[in-house]
Amino acid sequence: METLFSYHPRDLLLFSPRVYWTLVAGNNEVYWPLALLAPVVGLWLMWTLAKLGQARQRTGLAVLGAAWLFVTWSFLWAEYRSINWAITWAIGPFVLQGCLLLVLAGTAGSTSIPARHRYLIAMMLVAWGTLIHPLGFLLDDRPLGEADSWLLFPDPLSITTLGVVLAIARGRWLALSLPIPLLWSLVGGTTLLGLGSPIGWGMLAGAGLALAAWLPLTR
Amino acid sequence: MTHQWSRRRRRLLQALAAGTALTALPVSWGRASPSPITRRSPTGGSGIPAVGLGTWITFNVGDNQRLLDSCANVMKAFFDGGGTVIDSSPMYGSSQNTVGYGLDKLDARDRVFAADKVWTRDGDATRRQQRESADLWRVKQFDLLQVHNLVSWREHLDTLKAMKEEGAVGSIGITTSHGRRHRELEQIMASEPIDFVQLTYNPVDREAEERLLPLAREKGIGVIVNRPFRQGALTERLAKEPLPDWAADVGANSWAQLILKFILAHPAVTCAIPATTRVDHVRENLAAAQAPLPDDDLRERISDTIRSL
Ligand SMILES: NC(=O)c1ccc[n+]([C@@H]2O[C@H](COP(=O)([O-])OP(=O)(O)OC[C@H]3O[C@@H](n4cnc5c(N)ncnc54)[C@H](OP(=O)(O)O)[C@@H]3O)[C@@H](O)[C@H]2O)c1
Fold first, then answer.
1. What transmembrane ranges does the database entry give (chain A) (predicted)?
2. Which of A56, A149, A153, B298 has its CA 20 to 30 A from that of A2?
3. What is the pTM (predicted TM-score) of this model?
4. Nearest residue on chain A to B59, alpha-carbon basis
């Protein structure tokens, strides 16, 4: 029994916070214009959701789809995989999610604003992913250069995506485009907690809220 | 891409400056300290220094040049201090490659006792994985290959035995940790011709004392101790506590040294393999492998004190 208590969340990780945040800082250095643009594009995304219209929706989804493909290539494949072999299993689902969002962008008709609960949760998630989550570095006492923004890193991207698809997608499309970011929010949130970053709780709460908004009881 | 490289290069230069500063720091566990005590190797040959170097997490630094160089600095201090045993595994992310980078950079292939593991459910993949690991380590072959966490151990052990016969590996063993699967490990130790067993043992985790350590002694199996500091949880917790006066009786200057001396004083233990990212810690750990080591009474006192804190 004592052995059981000798486990710590960090025992689940292969790498140290120092190494993970060094990877994040490295990508921020290389793609700094995107890191700077991310909050602005986030605000724009929220505006498109506030004023749902076919063209705006499609552009929002296309940006999101492209971000999934970019993050897969620039971070998961090129960097994260080198310290975490399990990431190899995430590559396929991430590419699939990017493609799903691009197809949705190409086919989505105009949708009306969803039920109030769902809409509120959707907007909160987008605000969280694009504006709040990157501030997690403040809680951890890390430098600004280690802030993870949604256009560059999978954690805030997943939370943002949950919000966008909850606001725009319906029925089958919603069922298709929600599971991957939902799962990643659980994986990413747990990883952040293992790294000692309390912002991981935000991701787990975000996943819980998205699930609640998706389930029939809040429709 | 060029942009990326120039930035990485700048970071590398900063790192080199930092690395140089680090090695220039005055250290209390100096380079001048005598070589660590050695233990008999179960396969004969030269003795094994009683403190080795683990690589789980600490050496999983990916391709980051600054971090690779900082690990190479740790390896340099380790070899300079008389250490030889480095332990890694295919499970440890990029750690094997980091060790290989360090061995290359320090030109230290002839100074290392290369201990790696086989970690795959595919019982037919022993040799393939060993080749991949050796490529990452940049060594021709391993001094010790262990079945990691008993994964598909029957199949792997059969192949490892054959490899040892052929001279493709120096010695063979099996590992576990966190006190897991001790029963099964005991059966393997009793029935298989292994040279080493790797398990968790420290002043708080003492289950191995009951059956495994006595059995290892009886059968002449070398014991490599992992997680001496419970992956740093022990040393972190103890950092706030003052070191008892009586620690000086065994020449321990820190909690880490007291823990290592506790471990090394067990007659069945061949070596402990603490992992570290720090040059001062690697020196401190090696310096623990010196006489005097605690007697039975003092060992109990160390264990009781640490458990009570
Ligand atoms: N089943 C298996 O085969 C298995 C399982 C577990 C471990 N292992 C092997 O055993 C090795 C050791 O176990 P481990 O890495 O889990 O844990 P560990 O060696 O008990 O602890 C490593 C931690 O201790 C800290 N540390 C090291 N020296 C210190 C000192 N002098 N003072 C204060 N803190 C110190 C390090 O932090 P700093 O970086 O700050 O020094 C590091 O975070 C592993 O690396 C691995 O090679 C094998």
1. 30-49, 61-80, 86-107, 119-139, 151-169, 176-193, 199-217
2. B298
3. 0.89
4. A15
